[in-house]
Amino acid sequence: MGQAKIRGTPEQRKQAAIERQLSLRPKHIVCNNCQAELSEMAPIDVAGMHGIDAAFVASCPHCGHDTYAIKGEREAVANMHMAIEDATGSEAQAGVVPSANKV
Questions:
Q1: Does 98 map to a domain?
Q2: Which of 81, 85, 86, 92 is the most buried (most CB within 10 A)?
């Protein structure tokens, strides 16, 4: 408990976690379906997802396809990828967002 007090109130710690995740947001991701450049994306709550640093989803205005950007440990990202496939009922495509794409 003493360490938590040092890091701030629960609200301050939550805000700091949100800011850390948003700092990992790429400038854009490429739609896995039609290859459109997507800059509007929403953060996904990754609290409690061990090994996931940040995750975002963008819905393509051109084709309606959802594309995800996930950053974290390789195994955790693979597990989240499979969970997305299970939740959406469709096969998801994996891609890579280059480091140069960071804000």
A1: no
A2: 92
- Six-digit token string for 96: 């890579």
Whether 69 is in a domain gets the answer yes
E strands, the chain, in order = 29-30, 37-38, 42-43, 52-59, 66-72
Contact 39, 28 (CB under 8 A): yes
Q: What is the largest CA-CA distance in the chain?
A: 51
Per-residue pLDDT tens over the stretch 21-63? 788 888 899 998 899 999 999 988 888 889 999 899 999 999 9
| Domain that includes residue 67, residue range | 2-90
Determine which helix (DSSP H) or strand (DSSP E) holds 40, and give its type and residue range.
none
Overall domain count for the chain:
1
Q: pTM for the whole thing?
A: 0.75
